[in-house]
Specification:
There is one protein chain. The longest helix is centred in the first third of the chain and has 19 residues. By secondary structure, this protein is of the alpha+beta class. The mean pLDDT is about 90. The protein has a single domain, classed as 4-Layer Sandwich (Phosphatase 2c, domain 1). The chain has a five-stranded antiparallel β-sheet. It has a five-stranded antiparallel β-sheet with strand order 2-3-4-5-8, covered by helices on one side.
Length: about 230
């Protein structure tokens, strides 16, 4: 996991995770694979979730993280990157039982262009500066289901004041002591009503709402969120 957010011209990134055990199956990352923004590099953003719990899921996620870092350093296009990761995931998925959902994205600070591949993961949310929200619905199968899976790269433009929110299903499926689920609708409403804050403060505001909802109730899944805010 990244120890601190990387520097991004005219943008900032923040991340938050709550593991339900000493080892986690969620993964988030933000890094420059080839060159930093000053040299025209693109920022890689990743949020992923391995099906399953505890040590086996954490081990698979750790090896996927290492594979992703290696493949990204080769400068592969996102579609090919996803295909190569899927090949690795299929070799370790126990016949598709331990699959991985993921969003792999590249953000170009100089232009604001965001390219992304969604492998069976929760659809990211863009909260525009005017308060409107968009879901990045384009997606395909999770990694590790079948070697023949195809992955499509989609693009969207981010502008000043826009916020991108990537998250795992542990957020929307979090539950309280009454067994009530936090829900995607409640999460979307929170994102839509985000105040104009920094990335870190925006993320803290979102996750405080989730924490207040669940209280002391032990969750069955990890909760992870990554937020990119364009200044």
């Amino acid at each position: 996991m990244p120890s601190e957010p990387p520097a991004i011209p005219n943008a900032e990134v923040a991340f938050w995770t709550r593991a339900q055990n000493s080892v986690a199956g969620d993964y988030y990352d933000a890094f420059y694979p080839l060159a930093d923004a000053a040299a025209g590099g693109k920022l890689m953003l990743v949020v992923a979730d391995v099906a399953g719990k505890s040590v086996p899921a954490a081990l698979l996620m750790a090896t996927l993280q290492a594979s992703l870092r290696t493949l990204a350093s080769e400068g592969l296009p996102l579609t090919l990157l996803a295909i190569r990761l899927n090949r690795y995931a299929c070799e370790h998925s126990l016949g598709g039982q331990r699959f991985t959902t993921a969003v792999l994205a590249e953000y170009e600070p100089a232009t604001g262009k965001l390219a992304y591949v969604n492998a069976g993961h929760n659809s990211p949310i863009i909260r525009r500066a005017n308060g409107q929200t968009e879901r990045l619905e384009s997606g395909g199968l999770p990694l590790g289901i079948t070697l023949g899976a195809t992955f499509v790269t989609s693009e969207v433009a981010l502008q000043s004041g826009d916020t991108l929110v990537l998250f795992t299903d542990g957020v929307v499926e979090a539950f309280n002591s009454a067994g009530e689920e936090f829900s995607d609708a409640r999460w979307l409403d929170l994102v839509r009503n985000l105040p104009a804050l920094s990335a870190s403060d925006s993320l803290q505001s979102l996750m405080k709402s989730v924490e207040n909802f669940v209280g002391q109730t032990h969750q069955s899944d990890d909760i992870t969120c990554l937020l990119l805010r364009c200044r």
